[in-house]
Amino acid sequence: MIYNRIRDLPVVIEEVVLDRLELPVAPEFTRVTTLVVLRGQGHEGIGEDVTYEADEAALFAITGPPDLRGEWTIHTLSQALEALDLFPAPPAWPPSRNYRRWAFESAALDLGLRQAGEPLWRVLGEDCHPTSFVISTGLGDPPSPDRVLQWAEVAPGIGFKLDATPAWTRELMEQLGDAVDVDVIDLKGHYTGTVVDSGADPALYAMVAEEFPDAWLEDPRVDDRTRIALAGAEDRVTWDAPIHSVDDIAAMPIAPRTINIKPSRIGSLERLMAVYDHVRSEGLGAYGGGQYELGPGRGHIQYLASMFHPDAPNDTSPVDYHRPPHAGAPSSPLRAAPAATGFRWEP
Length: 347
Description:
- By secondary structure, the protein is α/β, with parallel strands linked by helices.
- It has two domains: 2-122, 2-Layer Sandwich (Enolase-like, domain 1); 126-322, Enolase-like C-terminal domain (TIM Barrel, Alpha-Beta Barrel), CATH 3.20.20.
- The protein is 34% helix and 19% strand.
- It has twelve helices and twelve strands.
- The protein has helices spanning 54-63, 74-83, 96-116, 120-124, 146-154, 170-179, 202-211, 224-229, 246-250, 263-266, 269-282, 296-308, and strands spanning 10-13, 15-26, 29-40, 43-49, 70-73, 134-137, 159-163, 181-186, 216-218, 237-238, 258-261, 285-288.
- Strand 9, helix 8 (224-229) and strand 10 form a beta-alpha-beta unit.
- Helix 2 runs antiparallel to helix 3 (96-116).
- The radius of gyration is 20 Å and the shape is globular.
- The protein starts with 9 loop residues before the first strand and ends in a 39-residue tail after the last helix.
């Protein structure tokens, strides 16, 4: 098991601090994340809490982090985190608990490795490789291909992961299919009560499956009508939002050939490494997923993708791609850039 290679890694924590990151994305939305910094023996380990609600990040900053000072191993610290409630008030969305848990576990891994003077890849016995990535974006409301076409112009040859909505037309799909490489269509069928809800539209599913015959079809909501719409495309169905553990993979209504692995959605290092074990043992494909990280959390997912699925359509583009289309952004694939020690990816 991959986890056994890190579970007994010692971690000495002397101080826990939080810091705020933010990026204005649109007039009505500023992305806020929280850095979790663990300090000990003259080293720092850093993780990123990608909880989406800015008020929850603000409350976390006010109440402060738990007291984790002491001598641990990766596994004993993980067990302690399992028993803690890291939210001063219940989060709006239950998956946020895993997001915050991942911030602490990734920071602890970074700190333990730095204290040991080792990089993650060497401890795991996994080489880092140049890593492919795609640009992940929606098309707005009403949907327009402009952002995609602008990125394609300044970053020629790059692939895309696009968020489909019932407002998409066949003409729009044909225009996109003729102009760019669409690797993944995110149907977002497993979000409820959020701004990205897309429901379950059989007509949309059927058109997407037909117009993008080589794309993965991520997170459909499966019912009797959408099963008919996806008939013949079942091998291209992949999953993201429902995946929090190995058990979730087996529970999917359409068995996947590949899955989107988001470490923050899984939460703990033990569960994450179990998913990597499962993917390998079952011969499944995988690609990495992001949560609009603003800082080192983006490097964490790029690091993991470089070891476990470097040639996949990874939704791990550099933070530069959070900005409007512009020239000079890093091209795909990203060069392998692990830091000399720790769980850090050097841009």
